[in-house]
């Protein structure tokens, strides 16, 4: 896959969400729009359309570059530092 960055290329087993919730928003009762699962540590957090944007904050602060969509029926990976998408 020539257009895929090295971070996405290193994902050989996709990590799926343990629970279909944002693991930070549920601590404070906050709302989210869509969910993303970190492919480094497996945490599920909310997307950039959500008020708290926990997934992109986590990617920057923990240096975990790649997430998948945790939404049912969506099968794609995204790398934050490279702004790169791939389907799986
Ligand atoms: Zn990358
Ligand atoms: Zn959240
Ligand atoms: Zn992570």
Share in helix: 10-25%
What ligands are attached or bound here? Answer: zinc ion
Strand-residue proportion: 15-25%
Sheet with most strands:
5 strands, antiparallel
- Which structural class is indicated by helix and strand composition? alpha+beta
Instruction: Point out poorly predicted stretches.
Output: none
How widely separated are the two ends? 11 Å
Give the overall form: globular
Radius of gyration: 12 Å
Number of strands: 5
Strand order of the largest sheet: 2-1-3-4-5
Mean pLDDT: 96
Summed up, the helix count is 3
Q: Provide the succession of SSEs.
A: HHEEHEEE
Short description:
19% of the residues lie in helices and 22% in strands. By secondary structure, it is of the alpha+beta class. It has helices spanning 6-9, 25-28, 54-62, and strands at residues 35-38, 44-46, 66-69, 76-79, 84-87.
Describe the structure.
A 5-stranded antiparallel sheet has the order 2-1-3-4-5, with helices on one face. A hairpin with a 5-residue loop joins strand 1 and strand 2. Helix content is 19%, strand content 22%. It is of the alpha+beta class and 88 residues long. It is built from 3 helices and 5 strands. The radius of gyration is 12 Å and the shape is globular. Bound molecules: zinc ion (3 copies). The site of one zinc ion has 7 residues, from helix 3.
